[in-house]
TrEMBL record:
The organism's taxonomic lineage, starting at the top: Eukaryota, Rhodophyta, Florideophyceae, Nemaliophycidae, Nemaliales
Main subcellular location: plastid
Gene Ontology CC terms: chloroplast
Purpose of the protein: Catalyzes the condensation reaction of fatty acid synthesis by the addition to an acyl acceptor of two carbons from malonyl-ACP. Catalyzes the first condensation reaction which initiates fatty acid synthesis and may therefore play a role in governing the total rate of fatty acid production. Possesses both acetoacetyl-ACP synthase and acetyl transacylase activities. Its substrate specificity determines the biosynthesis of branched-chain and/or straight-chain of fatty acids. Catalyzes the condensation reaction of fatty acid synthesis by the addition to an acyl acceptor of two carbons from malonyl-ACP. KAS III catalyzes the first condensation reaction which initiates fatty acid synthesis and may therefore play a role in governing the total rate of fatty acid production. Possesses both acetoacetyl-ACP synthase and acetyl transacylase activities.
Domain Beta-ketoacyl-[acyl-carrier-protein] synthase III N-terminal: residue ranges: 111-188
Oligomer and partners: Homodimer.
Keywords: Acyltransferase, Chloroplast, Fatty acid biosynthesis, Fatty acid metabolism, Lipid biosynthesis, Lipid metabolism, Multifunctional enzyme, Plastid, Transferase
Family: Belongs to the thiolase-like superfamily. FabH family.
Localization of this protein: Plastid, Chloroplast
Protein name per the record: Beta-ketoacyl-[acyl-carrier-protein] synthase III
Beta-ketoacyl-[acyl-carrier-protein] synthase III C-terminal domain: residues covered: 246-335
Length: 339
């Protein structure tokens, strides 16, 4: 039997989109018992943007995707697959097909991945498998979330953290391979630390002697989080996970040019960097502007850092996502700009 030839994955281009409505900490202080000083010292967040009434998650995802297509000099018809990482789909059956239609990506298969703030990293790893095994050539990976619609805006312990946004990347088959190593993890026993639970209600069916319970008025509750436990989880598991990825390729933290973590809290970013002996100057952070945009945070930061000229050819980037599930995953990539 001929051994399977593995192909390389190349991050061809990126794009991002942020909604127009900006809510800064001072504005939050007028509707909640909070302050700019409390929020910025504990989290690093100064402002966040949220969806307007006439916008949807698909609009944001479409803008981010079109930017990635333009930068990659591709047409929507060139896409073979779309992976849409989101936990805030506007349809319980998934949003990827709506994005496929909005882009006119008629040749592309499309599906959603729900893995909260780890969603983009997990989707990139899935896309990498399809490229390595020669199934697809061009894959669009989108991370988008609109948690503003799922938080309780009277709960100062959660709503101050989150913002809406979308980020996209195109992974392309290539001779060189940008994804050097990766690993993902799940600990379902801690799922209750961060969740948006479905509430089931039933009405008794009197016509059938109460034998049948008919679902009635079901709904999703607001986002609930044990901030302290999520914090402890992130600062212990993320350095360990990045360490494992480095070990797989015989690298160490000195080889890392940029540390790109899910933008959850500036303190988490700095503690993880500290534990890995990575100088804080190597942290890519835009949390002060957007807050925690869940699955969108990593691709937005990647897009902005590349556009700003921070990320250069051959830079080594350690990327890690972490969050609800609890899930966490890391990858080491070597940034590669085609001549
Ligand atoms: N403004 C003012 N006071 C506040 C606020 C606020 N917005 N929120 C909480 N407080 C108060 C609390 O009521 C408490 O008061 P008390 O001492 O009188 O009881 C006090 O501040 C301290 O509250 P803690 O919850 O202990 O604050 P902590 O230092 O833990 O910071 C925070 C909270 C910022 C949420 C932190 O725990 C954290 O960042 N955790 C990680 C969260 C995270 O990253 N989540 C996203 C994961 S990604 C995903 O999957 C979606």
């Amino acid at each position: 039997m001929t051994p399977l030839k593995m192909h390389g994955s190349h991050i061809l281009s990126t794009g991002s989109a942020i909604p127009d409505i900006c809510i800064d900490n001072d504005l939050l202080g007028t509707i909640l018992d909070t302050s700019d000083s409390w929020i910025s010292t504990r989290t690093g967040i100064k402002e966040r943007n949220i969806l307007g009434r006439d916008q949807s998650i698909i609009d944001l995802a479409t803008i981010a995707s079109k930017k990635a297509l333009t930068k990659g000099l591709l047409q929507a018809e060139d896409l073979d697959l779309i992976i849409f990482a989101t936990s805030t789909s506007n349809d319980l059956f998934g949003s990827a097909s709506q994005l496929q239609h909005a882009l006119g990506a008629k040749q592309a298969a499309a599906f959603d991945i729900t893995a909260a703030c780890s969603g983009f990293v997990i989707s990139l790893i899935i896309a990498h498998q399809f490229i390595q095994t020669n199934v697809y050539n061009n894959i669009l990976i989108v991370g988008a979330d609109t948690l503003s619609q799922w938080v309780d805006w009277s709960d100062r312990t959660t709503c101050i953290l989150f913002g809406d946004g979308a980020g996209a990347a195109i992974l392309q088959k290539n001779q060189d391979n940008d994804i050097l190593s990766f690993e993902i993890n799940t600990d379902g026993s801690e799922a209750h630390q961060l969740c948006i639970n479905h509430k089931r209600n039933f009405q008794q069916d009197t016509k059938h002697n109460n034998l049948i319970n008919i679902p009635s008025n079901n709904y999703y509750q607001h986002l609930r989080m044990n901030g302290k436990e999520v914090y402890k989880f992130a600062v212990s598991k993320v350095p360990e996970s990045i360490g494992k990825c480095l070990k797989q390729i015989s690298m160490n933290s000195k080889d890392i040019t940029w540390l790109l973590l899910h933008q959850a809290n500036q303190r988490i970013l700095e503690t993880v960097a500290n534990k890995l002996n990575i100088p804080v100057e190597k942290i890519l952070s835009n949390i002060q502007f957007y807050g925690n945009t869940s699955a969108a945070s990593i691709p937005i930061a990647l897009d902005e850092a590349f556009d700003a000229g921070h990320i250069c050819h051959k830079d080594i980037i350690a990327i890690a996502g972490f969050g609800a599930g609890l899930t966490w995953g890391s990858m080491i990539i070597k940034w590669h700009i085609n001549e």
